Amino acid sequence: MPCAAAARPRLPSSITESSRSSAARSGTRGDKGIERVYAPIVTRQLPDGPTCGDAGSMTATVTIRPTTGVRQRSAGPAMVRNLGPNWFAVVMGTGIVANAAATLPLAFPGLRGAATAMWLLAALLLVVLSAGWVAHHLRYPDTAREHRDHPVMSQFFGAPPMALLTVGAGALLLGRDVIGLDAAVAVDWVLWSAGTVLGLLTAFAVPYRMFTGRRSEPDAAFGGWLMPVVPPMVSAALGPLLIPYTPAGQPRLTLMLICLAMFGVSLIAALITISMIWSRLIHFGIPATGLVPTLWIVLGPLGQSVTAAGLLANAAPAGLPEYAGALNAFSVVYGVVVWGFAMLWLALAIAITVRTARTGEFAFTMTWWGFTFPLGTCVTGSTVLYSHTGAYLFGAAAVVLYALLVAAWAVVATRTVRGVVTGNLFAPAR
């Protein structure tokens, strides 16, 4: 028989509590450190009324409603909040357009003026991004920590030191026309020193964290793995520019030997990594669309090592005169051999990029800046080989590659400006 009286209704009373869940770590996602703040709605029970069948207390119900929230301050420009080290690739790509033009075998009317303007732009970008990155670390330390732990973003901590080195060299090659020789030398010394220290730290810290931290999958190798180990090669290539402005004797000898040592640090680490990337491509095929531009990064240590060998040979008569002849011979033999492999890799990178573009899913990302700086090192490497051999082959290659570099920079820079205006480039790392 049905009950004669219905259960007494419950009156809801909202109690808001902030409970924070611990951040789940992930090897591939960029939403680490994000927390949900829950607002439980707890329904209080009233005194028991008649029930059907048996007496007993009502069961309280809890409704969990997820609301948006993060552990750190959410206010502030998205660019500052999500500004990663990969943005310094913009400075690298812009700076190499300037520096490569300064030594190009074939001079064009207005080329030096345009190159100087590009150097000024790179210097301005370096200042703006450096200020933004400092603000990023101060206001959003949790996001900065996530970048250090991110399996892809962490590799690009090699970009800031290379940006410093590139702008510093540009000051000596081009900026001297604007700020004077003494100021240019001072700027280059400061930026080369800072970039070298940071680059050596990156070359140690990032691989160390990879060795001792999260295990990488067999198909994880990609071009970005070269970013932490390339900065010492950039220091080795650009340090010789300071040899004439270094006191003779032990200071000059020390600088020369440090540059040679950094050549070895980066070269061996890069060769090991390139072998891993080659193996990954053989066994697992082309990487995800967004990582295809990172294949061009392989050109970086190849072209930069050719440049470094040639410029170290140029500086040897003043810095290491006893071995000047040996270094000159090494720069040519080594340079031609590595240049040949770099051209093979360039052909493969172009073919894979074109194949990917034909799929219609080649969306723009900041990894597209990988099309610029590594290609620029092939320009400077070809220029150095031309200066040492006089072979028109290398002179023509330098000019053709520079034209390709300028075209790539124009496309990538345009897409970057568009992404900045729309805000599409400021999403968190994934």
From TrEMBL:
<keyword id="KW-0813">Transport</keyword>
<feature type="transmembrane region" description="Helical">
    <location>
        <begin position="332"/>
        <end position="354"/>
    </location>
</feature>
<comment type="similarity">
    <text>Belongs to the tellurite-resistance/dicarboxylate transporter (TDT) family.</text>
</comment>
<feature type="transmembrane region" description="Helical">
    <location>
        <begin position="392"/>
        <end position="412"/>
    </location>
</feature>
<feature type="region of interest" description="Disordered">
    <location>
        <begin position="1"/>
        <end position="30"/>
    </location>
</feature>
<dbReference type="InterPro" id="IPR038665">
    <property type="entry name" value="Voltage-dep_anion_channel_sf"/>
</dbReference>
<feature type="transmembrane region" description="Helical">
    <location>
        <begin position="156"/>
        <end position="174"/>
    </location>
</feature>
<feature type="transmembrane region" description="Helical">
    <location>
        <begin position="189"/>
        <end position="208"/>
    </location>
</feature>
<dbReference type="InterPro" id="IPR051629">
    <property type="entry name" value="Sulfite_efflux_TDT"/>
</dbReference>
<feature type="transmembrane region" description="Helical">
    <location>
        <begin position="87"/>
        <end position="108"/>
    </location>
</feature>
<keyword id="KW-1133">Transmembrane helix</keyword>
<feature type="transmembrane region" description="Helical">
    <location>
        <begin position="366"/>
        <end position="386"/>
    </location>
</feature>
<dbReference type="InterPro" id="IPR004695">
    <property type="entry name" value="SLAC1/Mae1/Ssu1/TehA"/>
</dbReference>
<feature type="compositionally biased region" description="Low complexity">
    <location>
        <begin position="13"/>
        <end position="27"/>
    </location>
</feature>
<feature type="transmembrane region" description="Helical">
    <location>
        <begin position="255"/>
        <end position="278"/>
    </location>
</feature>
<feature type="transmembrane region" description="Helical">
    <location>
        <begin position="114"/>
        <end position="135"/>
    </location>
</feature>
<protein>
    <submittedName>
        <fullName>C4-dicarboxylate ABC transporter</fullName>
    </submittedName>
</protein>
<keyword id="KW-0472">Membrane</keyword>
<keyword id="KW-1003">Cell membrane</keyword>
<dbReference type="Pfam" id="PF03595">
    <property type="entry name" value="SLAC1"/>
</dbReference>
<dbReference type="GO" id="GO:0055085">
    <property type="term" value="P:transmembrane transport"/>
</dbReference>
<keyword id="KW-0812">Transmembrane</keyword>
<feature type="transmembrane region" description="Helical">
    <location>
        <begin position="220"/>
        <end position="243"/>
    </location>
</feature>
<feature type="transmembrane region" description="Helical">
    <location>
        <begin position="290"/>
        <end position="312"/>
    </location>
</feature>
<dbReference type="GO" id="GO:0005886">
    <property type="term" value="C:plasma membrane"/>
</dbReference>
